[in-house]
Structures are given as structure tokens and as C-alpha cells.
Design brief:
Low-confidence stretches: none
Radius of gyration: 22 Å
Largest sheet: 8 strands, mixed
Number of strands: 14
Strand content: 15-25%
Length: 404
């Protein structure tokens, strides 16, 4: 029997998301979430999608889960109850989402002690994410030391950006000393969606130029030429770029100086303001696009202003990336907002017929879980909606690496 299963782990500071996939056919065997780790109100939701439990066998546990070690042991027990435990000889590898790979990690990497130490060294570049990613790796290695553990990095897909794009125009020695450059994030999503867009168009990936708009609570844009990222909106951190749920996106850097000198803000207070209290939330008090749209539809001025700012930033990036690519074959919307908020797609592309972007209103308004085109049939540039699948992308990259 050839081992073909991959367990994908996404370890957050107080949560673990997971999926078990069979790469023989790409099917999902189980998925779940452990949240509020370390609290009395911890919660584990497990859903077997195949196997003895069958689809619809959703199970939930409530009660304290002390740490990530206990969380992963609980996940292992749930999988074992469905006959798909971590001790199964069918488990080929564990794939870990790691947010920041710096300049060292530009492709999926089998984790050994040296690699794990280097991921730890990158914690200053992603202090909210990499520590939890490291913890997940350590626990998974302890549970199944004989199975390859693979790190798949959010930043890796964007490592192909030209140096003149990745570099900020600051003193070069300072930039090098502190690893200051544009790294980009959401890379597994941008990789998956750009390939899926080419497939939807029925063309080879190498022949397709696409602007990918990953719009969730966090949001980013990328310009992908022939399957290769040449520009992305997020930078040193996930703060740069588009207006997001709670993040400001692009601001004049002097805002930081002004807040410190005039407002007396500390560095941590400014960090919190721009990352957690800005974006849609800062402008209107809501970071859920559904609520923003509802309020704007009722004439709420703050919500209308926030939505206008959100859409305006999208238009700027679509225009800029059209110039960067020279020829655009498709603009693709993905992630929670991009896939489900037809009003965002409509507003973002309104007035862009000169760039070849013309929506079909009826197609755009339809809800579907399938990849689809929402542009008019004779549009010069296709507009697509492609549900992202970061777990499948991580599993695919992981399995390809361990079965070479």
C-alpha cells in the first residue's frame, strides 16, 4: 500500500485548523478546528468527510484543552475514532502552514532540527504567527517522528518578485541589517488561484497573466505572469496594501511619527491601531463586510465611506497591476469577501471597461461554490470567481516534495 494521506496543520496562537486529505485523488477525509486553546472554554469541532464516520458525522467537544500538545493529541484521537489515526501507515506526511519564510525559504521544505531553528530565527518578522507555527511543528514531530514534516511558507510564492520590486527605497545597509523588504503573504492562496484561473480559461498556466484579489478579513493582491508572481500588495508584514477588515493597508509612514510626536502614542499602541483598530473597523465600527454592506444600503454615512475607501483601493491596485503586467488575461476574486460579496466585485470594476473589464450582472449576482466566469462573453479581460483552497495547495506541495 502506497502512503498517500497528508495531514495539513495550521497552528495559530490559540487554535489549530486541520484537514486530512488523500492525495491519490485529492479527496478530503476529515477536517476540523480546535479553538481557545489554554482556556476553560476550549472547543474542538471535527468533521469526518469520508471513511467509517461518513459525511455529516460532525462531532464537537467542549472543555479545557491546556496547550497545543493536548490539542493535537485530541485531534489524533478524533481521527483514530474514524479509522484514520496518525499511526496509520497510509499517512505520507504532515504539511505545516508557516507564515514567514524570509529570504531563506522559497519553496516547501522538509523540516529537520536546522530548519526548525531557522524558522524560530524568523520570529521577529512574524511575531504573531511563526511562534504558533513552530509549536505545531514541534508537537507534530513528537507525535509522529518517523513521518516527514514539511513547511509550506506563505511568503514563498512571492519570492519570485524582481529585486527592484521587493526592495524598499531606504538605505540599503539598514534594509539588509534588519531584513527589510517586501515578502508578501497569502502565497498558497495566490498560487492555487492563479493556476485554477488558467484551468478555468482552458489555457496553460505559462500563457496566462492574472491579477488575483484575495479578499477576506485580511486582503492582498498579486500580479502573476505565467504562473510567476511579479508583484504583491503586502510587504514586510501583512499590514501594507489594501484596506482590510481591521488593518489600514497603505498609509504615509509619517503617520507613525505624527502619532508618536504629537499624540504621544507608544510603538505598541501604533501597532495595535494600524493592525487591529483600522481598516473597515476603524472607519465605521464593523469589520464584517456583510454588515458594512447592510449599513451602507440603509444610508449609513460611515459605512458608505468605509466601503468607498475599500473599493477605491482595490481599483488603484487593479489599475497598477494592469500596468505592471502589460497584458491581463483575467482578474480573479477569491476568499470570503471576494467569493461571496458580488457588490464588492461590481463596485471595484465599475468604470474599468477601458481596461477590458466588463461584468455580466446576472452571472456576477449568482452564488456558487464552483469556479466561474462573471464577465460578459466578449470581454477582453475575463473576470473570475475562484474559491481558494489553501489546504489542498499545502497538501499538494507537501506530497510532491516527499514523493519525488
Amino acid at each position: 500500500m502506497t502512503a498517500s494521506r497528508v495531514l495539513v496543520l495550521n497552528s495559530g496562537s490559540s487554535s489549530v485548523k486541520y484537514q486530512l486529505l488523500d492525495m491519490a485523488d485529492g479527496s478530503r477525509l476529515a477536517s476540523g478546528l480546535v479553538e481557545r486553546i489554554g482556556e476553560e472554554t476550549s472547543r474542538l469541532v471535527h468533521e469526518p468527510l469520508a471513511g467509517p464516520g461518513g459525511a455529516g458525522g460532525r462531532r464537537e467537544q467542549l472543555g479545557p484543552i491546556a496547550d497545543h500538545g493536548a490539542a493535537l493529541k485530541a485531534v489524533a484521537a478524533e481521527l483514530a475514532a474514524d479509522g484514520m489515526g496518525l499511526d496509520s501507515p497510509e499517512l505520507a506526511a504532515v504539511g505545516h502552514r508557516v507564515v514567514h519564510g524570509g529570504t531563506r525559504f522559497t519553496r516547501p521544505t522538509v523540516i529537520d532540527d536546522e530548519v526548525l531553528a531557522e524558522i524560530r530565527n524568523l520570529i521577529p518578522l512574524a511575531p504573531l504567527h511563526n511562534p504558533a507555527n513552530v509549536t505545531g511543528i514541534e508537537v507534530a514531530r513528537s507525535l509522529r517522528a518517523d513521518v516527514p514534516q514539511v513547511a509550506v511558507f506563505d511568503t514563498a510564492f512571492h519570492s519570485t518578485m524582481p529585486e527592484y520590486v521587493a526592495r524598499y527605497a531606504i538605505d540599503a545597509e539598514t534594509a539588509d541589517a534588519y531584513s527589510i523588504r517586501r515578502y508578501g503573504f497569502h502565497g498558497t492562496s495566490h498560487a492555487y488561484v492563479s493556476r485554477a484561473t488558467a484551468h478555468l480559461l482552458g489555457r496553460p498556466v505559462e500563457d496566462v497573466n492574472v491579477i488575483v484579489l484575495h479578499l477576506g478579513n485580511g486582503a492582498s493582491a498579486s500580479a502573476v505572469r505565467g504562473g510567476v508572481c511579479v508583484e504583491t500588495s503586502m510587504g514586510l508584514t501583512p499590514l501594507e496594501g489594501l484596506v482590510m477588515g481591521t488593518r489600514s493597508g497603505d498609509v504615509d509612514p509619517a503617520v507613525v511619527f505624527h502619532l508618536a510626536r504629537v499624540g504621544g502614542f507608544s510603538v505598541d499602541e501604533i501597532d495595535s491601531l494600524l493592525n487591529k483598530k483600522s481598516g473597515l473597523l476603524g472607519m465605521c465600527g464593523d469589520n464584517d463586510m456583510r454588515e458594512v454592506l447592510r449599513r451602507a444600503g440603509e444610508g449609513d454615512e460611515a459605512a458608505s465611506l468605509a466601503f468607498a475607501a475599500y473599493v477605491h483601493r482595490l481599483k488603484k491596485y487593479i489599475g497598477a497591476y494592469s500596468a505592471v503586467l502589460g497584458r491581463v488575461d483575467a482578474v480573479t476574486f477569491t476568499a470570503g469577501v471576494g467569493e461571496n460579496a458580488h457588490q464588492v466585485r461590481e463596485a471595484a470594476l465599475d468604470g474599468l471597461a477601458g481596461l477590458g473589464l466588463v461584468l455580466d450582472p446576472e452571472a456576477n449576482a449568482l452564488r456558487s461554490a464552483e469556479p466561474r466566469l462573471v464577465s460578459v462573453k466578449d470581454a477582453r479581460v475575463a473576470v473570475a470567481v475562484v474559491p481558494t483552497d489553501e489546504e489542498l495547495e499545502i497538501a499538494t506541495q507537501t506530497y510532491a516534495l516527499v514523493t519525488r
